[in-house]
Amino acid sequence: MEKEYAIVMNGIVKEFKVLNRREGLKGSLLDLFSRDYRTVTAVDDISVKIPKGQIVGYLGPNGAGKSTTIKMMTGVLEPTRGELLVNGCIPYKNRTKNAEKIGVVFGQRSQLWWSLPLIESFRLLKEIYLISDADYNEMMELYMSLVDLEPLLHKTVRQMSLGQRTLSDILAAFLHDPQIVFLDEPTIGLDVSMKAKIRELIKELNRKKQTTVILTTHDMGDVDALCERIVIIDHGKMIYDNDMEHLKTYYGSYRTLKLRLPGDVWEEEQIDESETDVMSVISEYQKKGNILDIKLEEIATEEVIKKIYEGVAG
Q1: CATH topology for 2-10+46-248?
Q2: Which helix (H) or strand (E) holds 170?
Q3: Domain residue limits, the chain
C-alpha cells in the first residue's frame, strides 16, 4: 500500500535547458540573443520508496543530483517526468499542504529570526504552523527532556555558536511535528562533541515522534550514527539502495592494514581478506625492514561509499 510510504518516486527525471555559452565579451553579447541550448539531465530515472519513520541517508558526490531531488520532494521543482508522492500528495501541485507536513534544515542557513531570542522564534513558528497550545507545550517538554535548552531560550540567534544555532534549527524543524524532515549537512563545521549531541537528538526525535528523516551529508559519521538505509546516486542515477548492515556485510572482508616503519613512517594498505592473506602482506614489509607497530582496522564507511562511487559494488 502506498499509504505505508512517506515518499514514493517512480522513474523520476529532471532535465534543465542550459545555454551553450561563448567566450569573451563578444560571445557574452551574442549569448543574450542565442537559442543554442543543450539539455542536462540532473536526475535520471530514480525510483525509490521510503517507509514512514525511516532514517535514510541520501548520498552522492557533489553534482550527483541530491539537491535537485530534495527540491522536487519539497515542491520547489517540478519533475520533468515520473511520479513523485510525498505524504500521499504531489509536492509541486500542493506546495502549501506539503510545507505544513515537512521540516527542513539546510546546513549553516538558519531559518530562525537572527535578532530574536530563540523562544520568540519558537512562538512565531507556533503561530505560522497553527500549532495548538497543547501540542506546543508537549514538544517543548520533549525538547527539555532531550537537551539542556533553558540556557538557549532567551539568547538571540546571532549570539549563539554554530553548534547552538544548528541544534536550535533542528528543534525548530521538528516543532510542528512534521511527518518528514529533510536534513542537509546538519553537522557541517561542528566539533566532535556537538556532532555527537546533534546525532543523538535526531535519533531520539525520530524514535519518539516516528518522523521520517532524509539526510544528505558528506560526513560518514552521520551515516554510521543515524542511517538505517542509504540511497546513493551519481550523475543523476541511483547506484545503491540497501540497508547499512548489507553494506557492512558486503565489504566485511575488507580491512585497513597500518604499519609503522623506521623513521616513524606509516604505510597503509587496504586488503580484501577473501583474496589476500594479511600475514603475507606483513611478511613482505618485514623483508624491507623492521616493523615497529601494526594496526588492523575495519574498513571505514567512507571507503565503502568511495568504492561504490567507483563501481566496485557493481
Answers
A1: Rossmann fold (3.40.50)
A2: helix 162-174
A3: 2-10+46-248, 253-298
